[in-house]
Design goal:
Layout lengths: L2 E6 L4 H15 L6 E7 L2 E7 L10 E2 L5 E9 L2 H10 L9 H12 L9 E9 L4 E6 L8 E5 L2 E5 L17 H10 L12 E3 L4 E6 L2 E6 L14 H19 L6 E4 L5 H12 L6 E6 L4 H13 L2 E6 L4 H12 L15 H5 L4 E3 L4 H4 L14 H14 L10 H4 L2 H7 L2 H11 L6 H25 L4 E3 L5 H7 L11 H10 L1 H4 L14 H18 L3 H4 L9 H4 L5 H8 L2 H4 L6 H12 L5 H17 L2
Parallel strand pairs: 13-14, 13-16, 14-15, 16-17
Antiparallel strand pairs: 1-3, 1-9, 2-3, 4-5, 5-6, 6-7, 7-11, 8-9, 8-10, 11-12
Helix pairs in contact: 2-3, 5-6, 5-16, 5-17, 22-24
């Protein structure tokens, strides 16, 4: 996967160049990537990239050759940024986004960061003051990890480039592991290693004279009070900002594709793409088990939109070939059963260089919102109610009541309070008492940058990924929506039905029903009613499956992948990690092989074990 590597340390230029090369190779070994490297006494920077965007050589320098910039990512409001400079009397042409951003930094300093609408990480080096400044976007869409050791300060787009430092402490962060085993993702800035941190979203990290400081320049602030408005006005606003977001990102001459599922988020993007730029050739991709609900409805949507649709079968053996790579790319932050975007990526990249995803639409517009949030609780009960929302959606890997049963005594005693503190702090950071807003804030600042982003990370291994839902103006609008319009994703559903009624007649995978009342919806609902009665009378086979999922790790872990599961989790080293009691780990695997669904737990445990082999052992 492409990205950035760098250091600030006491080292001469020749040895620094060798060091930055090693970091670059550790980040990505394959020769298909392009590499830009620069070192001077005490500082080194490298950019490993696909050559799809920001193709000019980097770093770029100011005219005095005293200030340099390396940029990874994209900006989508270039004209607005040029206008900012023009208002300051600076009129010139810019050969690249990097050159424009360097000019902004030179004249505005880091104050220009909130003005940028994009997905990026920027690294500035001031030769005169010997200062390294790293700035990321509001969402932290290009993760940067950093460490400080006796060797100096190092940063990179993946932990794999940091562990080449022989002085780096590789002790695991037990609290981070407990969080991963609970929520399927880590919290805050924790990583697998105690000595490595994730750079916060919307931040400016500065290193000078061996001193590190981090300043947050953006906070997602939900409205505490809402004006009385007709719902139709919110619908009109949402349609406006959604259209604008797609217009900003749907650009360029590279072949473009959209990952199309049977859900709403990617369907929304597709509908606007075809509505705005119907003449542009667009590919759509769906990977899935054949004849899944997602595959069938995605194909129908693609036919309606008249895209060039491509179906790729999701096969279990991808994990045998690419599972370790997926864990390496995501720095051990992702459950391996959620990283299959890598499975068919090479085939997709041969068709399209740019891929759009419906990333984050759920988090912004109602995922996790529950009716019980409309009540007042004391602080302790409030946190338990937030945990209940996880239980409602069945997204807790190991629920809290069984921690003491399966965790070793030392691991349980060490982490039982610390992960709860992180969870509480993550919710309270919203700075607002309304629980719906707390949960939505938590999703934007915890679940998205620590879990959902992993699918984007693996897709970047071969493509440029664009995420229209992360547009600044669209996110800001989502913060103004009253909680009741997030419940059940009401606003998003109503807006889609109003704007694209023909697309709304096609069922979505979650319900297997159209979004609007029509003949097909009535027929489908009646069929589900009949099937429900048949299942209650023991006629399950005749009724057919309730859903047809796009993946089947439940079965794959018992068959094609069984040996991989057992080799990974039941060896002596894995059993003695000290997190789960050996007999508990053995029982989880045994129960799954006997028919009990332990898929998510096995996936999480495999990811942790593989990550230990890569970064700890």
């Amino acid at each position: 996967m492409p990205g950035i590597v760098g250091f600030v340390k006491k080292i001469d230029q020749e040895n620094g160049l060798e060091w930055i090369r090693k970091m670059g190779i550790a980040l990505e070994t394959e020769e298909r990537f392009r590499r830009d490297m620069y070192t001077t006494g005490g500082f080194g920077i490298g950019r490993i990239h696909l050559g799809l965007t920001q193709t000019h050589p980097q770093p770029v320098w100011n005219p005095e050759h005293m200030l340099a910039l390396v940029l990874e990512g994209e900006i989508f409001n270039r004209a607005e940024l040029e206008h900012v400079l023009k208002n300051k009397g600076i009129e010139q042409s810019y050969s690249s986004d990097a050159e424009l951003l360097l000019t902004l930094y030179e004249h505005l300093g880091s104050d220009f960061a909130p003005l940028i609408n994009g997905a990026f990480v920027m690294v500035f080096w001031n030769l005169k003051t010997q200062t390294c400044t790293i700035i990321n976007d509001r969402m932290g869409l290009y993760p940067i990890y950093y460490s400080q050791s006796p060797s100096g300060f190092h940063f990179a787009s993946g932990i794999r480039a940091l562990v080449i430092d022989p002085n780096l402490d590789r002790s695991p962060d037990q609290t981070a592991i407990a969080e991963f085993l609970t929520f399927d993702h880590m919290l805050g800035q924790r990583t697998l290693l105690k000595s490595v941190s994730l750079m916060p979203q919307g931040s400016i990290l500065t290193v000078q004279d061996h001193n590190l400081s981090i300043q947050t320049y953006h906070h997602f602030q939900y409205h505490k009070e809402h004006e009385l408005r007709n719902d139709s006005l919110y619908i009109e606003e949402f349609i406006y900002f959604m259209r604008q977001a797609v217009e900003r990102q749907y650009q360029g001459n590279l072949p473009q594709g959209l990952l199309l599922s049977g859900g709403l988020d990617s369907r929304f993007i597709l509908a606007f793409m075809m509505n705005i730029f119907s003449k542009n050739p667009l590919h759509t991709f769906t990977w899935s088990i054949p004849n899944s609900d997602d595959a069938r409805y995605a194909k129908e949507i693609a036919n309606q939109a008249r895209t060039q649709h491509h179906f790729f079968e999701l096969k279990p053996d991808w994990l045998l070939d690419l599972g370790e790579k997926a864990v390496r790319i995501t720095s051990g932050n992702g459950n391996i059963v959620n990283l299959h975007a890598l499975a068919t990526l090479e085939q997709e990249s041969q068709i399209a260089n740019v891929i759009y995803k419906g990333f984050m639409g759920d988090a912004m517009f109602g995922f996790g919102v529950r009716p019980r949030f409309w009540a007042d609780y004391d602080d302790e009960t409030r946190m338990e109610v937030h945990m209940e929302a996880y239980r409602d959606y069945r997204v807790l890997t190991f629920d809290t009541p069984i921690h003491s049963e399966i965790f070793t005594d030392s691991f349980f005693n060490h982490t039982s309070e610390s992960w709860r503190t992180d969870f509480r702090d993550g919710m309270n950071a919203a700075g607002i008492p309304q629980m719906t807003d707390q949960r939505s804030y938590f999703d934007l600042t915890q679940r998205v940058p620590r879990m959902t982003i992993n699918g984007v990370e693996v897709a970047r291994d071969r493509t440029l990924v664009r995420l229209p839902f992360t547009d600044n103006d669209l996110i800001d609008f989502s913060l103004r929506i009253p909680p009741y319009l997030r419940m059940g994703r009401a606003l998003m559903n109503q807006a889609f039905i109003k704007q694209f009624p023909q697309y709304a007649k096609i069922p979505i995978a979650q319900t297997r029903l159209p979004m609007i009342t029509c003949a097909r919806e009535i027929l489908g609902r009646n069929l589900q009613f009949v099937q429900w009665h048949m299942r209650n009378r023991g006629l399950t086979k005749l009724a057919g499956p309730e859903t047809r999922p796009y993946k089947d790790y439940n079965n794959w872990f018992r068959t094609v992948l069984r040996s991989r599961v057992e080799e990974t989790l039941l060896n002596s080293r894995a059993l003695e990690r000290g997190y789960l009691k050996p007999q508990a780990l053995q029982k989880i695997v045994k129960d799954h092989m006997a028919g009990k669904n332990q898929t998510v737990r096995i996936g999480a445990l495999m990811s942790i074990e593989i990550a230990h082999q890569l970064f700890v052992d």
